[in-house]
Amino acid sequence: MAAREVIVGPSTPTAPYPIFVSGEVVRGFGRGGKQLGIPTANLPESVVESALSEIPIGVYYGWAQVSGDSTVRPMVMSLGWNPYFKNEKRSGEVHIMHKYDEDFYGSHLKIAILAYIRPEKDYESLEKLIEDIQADIRAAETSLKREAYEKVRHEAFFNN
Question: Bridge-partner residues for 22, per DSSP?
Fold first, then answer.
């Protein structure tokens, strides 16, 4: 596999970003934490179909906050059909880059989507999928350290 870029996106978020979205964390397919070792907070189908219907399918990065936790944390989000798993509906799966001790189903999740990393694709193996997700996480971590991206974590959206 070719080496991936460690910084993705322009030096400052550009339209249509940032995109601010919130919703209740719902049960997903049960694969993120168990099968991939990369737990996700899943957005309700209604949010995926309304607030996220205008952006392309693929992988994004930005900031996330779970109700009850004042910290705004880095995240990557998969938006799409997950062809490796042959999903029958579009999903929004947010991986918050933090180890939580407990599930937080039913909590309110706020996210700020700041940039597109890559299109969704199918994989020949679970290992290749995990490898690509880890590269997405590294790109997000590095990209979010830029001042214009870091600044978004302090938006009023996260303080309400």
Answer: 110
